[in-house]
Design brief:
Elements: H1 15-21, H2 29-36, E1 47-51, H3 55-66, E2 70-74, E3 89-90, E4 95-96, H4 97-110, E5 114-117, E6 120-128, E7 131-138, H5 153-157, E8 162-163, E9 172-173, E10 176-177, E11 189-190, H6 205-209, E12 222-228, E13 230-233, E14 237-239, E15 256-258, H7 259-266, E16 287-294, H8 309-323, E17 328-333, H9 343-354, E18 357-360, E19 363-368, E20 374-380, E21 385-391, E22 393-398, E23 400-402, H10 406-413, E24 438-440, H11 450-468, H12 479-484, E25 487-489, E26 495-498
Parallel strand pairs: 1-2, 1-13, 2-5, 13-24, 15-22, 16-17, 16-22, 17-18
Antiparallel strand pairs: 3-4, 6-7, 7-12, 8-9, 10-11, 14-23, 19-20, 20-21, 25-26
Helix pairs in contact: 3-4, 3-11, 7-8, 8-9
Bound molecules: flavin-adenine dinucleotide (FAD) and iron/sulfur cluster (2 copies).
């Protein structure tokens, strides 16, 4: 169903005025002028809500803003960036993930048409395509975003030590912290659940340590209402918790880790400064076993293929060899799913240049021997005989699953889910959800890699912009319509195309 273009009644609020109206940190005069100049003679743009600030939400926001559409980017955590911020390098090019992501995060932050709402979640949505009202709960940061210089003086005096979620629990953070050095916004955040409080007998040391005076324990959560024309959902994914698969001993054996833990361990900004070490003895592993499809393609857990794991395990095995030249990596796989451009060649290079061995088998059980090495029990697919392999480190490629926020958000937005709990989208218009004016991209609609998430994000931006500008949203065109259109033929008998009135 098409949505009629309607006159905008919300006034021209661009650049600094937009930021000010939303109580957001303001961009510089020059930044605003550069972006507003070319919009002066155009009708007031509409606005789009983007939910989720991973790579998909960031790309959708940037594309929309570059089309002159105002964007509210709502992210539940203290920073944008999503999972990509936790990755070391990215397949198939082995580019540094942060080097690609960080400039986009900064661009988002600086764009005068993008208002980033971190620590925020959608609470209610009313209205329809072209005229949604969205209620957002913004949790208090307790640190003034625009004044904080990220000096870290507050964290240095904080006595509370907590598991660092960004480092997958492999290191610790304080009760006042910044999730990672390139976080956007560049500001510390206080976790009220961990903090001792500011009563003189309790603590309040961070307040004393902050010379900028930007910590305020009296800050309260806020509820804000946003008027938007369309909604882009980009709430991403979670990874499967391998605990129920007791045969792999994920919590029993410290040297059994997940793919995301491996990404943090091998990353220069990770807990070991980029040295790939076993968690038990802090020694470099000599043999690594990668186990694929942990939770995926499994009738008891996820029946679907997580699509990115064959490639990320290959990347991790290659990176391991780059860090430890004599390491041997063995990848135990179900099928090798390498369907993207250059993916097959990537796997061949891993085999030929990095000595990665691919073994078609499901590991049945992991045990630990007396020397602390891990023993893989598996079946040799060629001979159907049971075999054993001793490794120093096991890496589980845990499946990509819908995040816990997908189902409640779908209910709030009246969207259907597919049989696996991802957002249902139209097979022939793959970013359209089951509700007009609401679009989805990235891993919340199915597991995808970064290039696919980015392409989908640009698709959602184009679809959402149709509601937010004076253009009519493009209705689905019945194929017959093109055939039925009267054709225009010029005096010479040349075909000029369909008649302008039908075009
Ligand atoms: C171990 C591992 C290695 C990988 N390596 C690669 C690689 O090398 N190359 C590659 O191309 N791909 C790789 N991937 C896949 C890549 O991580 C994903 O393609 C990418 O992260 C998808 O981005 P996204 O924006 O859809 O989701 P996410 O990165 O999950 O971002 C979603 C964002 O939404 C936020 N959010 C969630 N719920 C809500 C809510 N209710 N309200 C507001 N915000 C919310 C989250 O906090 C998060 O910031 C890897 C994946 C894994 C698990
Ligand atoms: S001491 Fe103040 S300015 Fe420095 S990081 Fe902490 S809150 Fe920010
Ligand atoms: S008041 Fe809270 S955040 Fe501040 S130093 Fe004490 S425990 Fe840490």
């Amino acid at each position: 169903m098409a949505c009629e273009a309607k006159p905008r009644s919300r006034g021209l609020v661009l650049g600094r005025p937009f930021a000010k109206a939303q109580g957001m940190p303001m961009k510089s005069e020059e930044e605003s002028a550069a972006h507003t100049e070319h919009l002066d003679d155009q009708p007031p743009p509409g606005a789009v809500l983007v939910v989720g600030g991973g790579i998909a939400g960031i790309q959708a926001s940037l594309d929309l803003a570059e089309m002159g559409v105002r964007v509210h980017l709502v992210e539940k955590s203290p920073t944008i960036g999503g999972r990509m911020a936790q990755l070391d390098k990215t397949f198939p090019t082995n580019d540094c993930a942060t080097c690609i992501l960080s400039p986009k995060m900064v661009q988002c932050d600086r764009h005068p048409l993008i208002a980033i709402h971190t620590l925020s979640e959608v609470q209610a949505v009313t209205g329809e395509a072209g005229d949604f009202t969205v209620r957002v709960l913004k949790r208090a940061r307790y640190v003034d975003e625009s004044a904080c210089t990220s000096c870290g003086d507050c964290a240095r005096v904080c006595p509370i030590v907590k598991r660092d979620e960004f480092q997958m629990g492999l290191s610790t953070r304080r009760a006042i912290y910044i999730p990672f050095p390139q976080a956007v916004p560049q500001a510390y955040v206080r976790d009220p659940d961990d903090c001792l409080g500011d009563e003189p007998m309790a603590c309040g040391r961070c307040i004393e340590a902050c010379s900028k005076g930007c910590i305020d324990f009296d800050e309260r959560d806020e509820v804000i209402d946003l008027s938007v024309d369309a909604i882009v959902v980009a709430v991403g994914m979670e990874t499967f918790d391998p605990d129920p698969l007791t045969e792999y001993g994920y919590t029993r054996f410290q040297n059994v880790i997940t793919g995301l833990e491996f990404e943090r361990l091998i990353c220069a900004s990770g807990p070991s400064g980029g040295r790939l070490l076993r968690l038990t003895d802090r020694r470099e592993p000599r043999v690594i076993g990668f186990i694929q499809c942990v939770g995926s393609r499994n009738l008891k857990y996820q029946r679907f293929c997580s699509s990115v794991c064959c490639m990320h395990a290959t990347k991790e095995a290659v990176l391991a060899r780059e860090h430890i030249p004599d390491v041997q990596s063995h990848i135990f796989y179900t099928d090798l799913r390498a369907s993207g451009r250059g993916f097959r060649e990537y796997i061949e290079r891993a085999q030929q240049e990095y000595g990665v061995e691919y073994i078609r088998s499901r590991v049945a059980k992991i045990e630990e021997d007396q020397d602390g090495r891990l023993v893989f029990h598996y079946e040799d697919a060629a001979t159907s005989r049971p075999r054993e392999m001793r490794v120093d480190l096991a890496v589980l490629a845990t499946s990509v699953v819908p995040g816990p926020g997908v189902a409640p958000l779908a209910e709030m937005l009246r969207l259907e889910l597919d049989e696996y709990g991802f957002l249902k989208t139209d097979p022939f218009s793959p970013t359209d959800t089951t509700r007009e004016g609401v679009y989805a991209c990235g891993c919340c609609r199915a597991p995808v890699d970064i290039p696919q998430a980015v392409a989908q994000a640009s698709g959602t931006a184009a679809r959402a912009a149709q509601h937010a500008t004076e253009l009519d949203p493009m209705p689905a065109q019945p194929a017959s319509r093109l055939v039925d259109q009267p054709l225009v033929i010029d005096g010479e008998g040349d075909l000029l195309g369909p008649s302008p009135r039908d075009c």
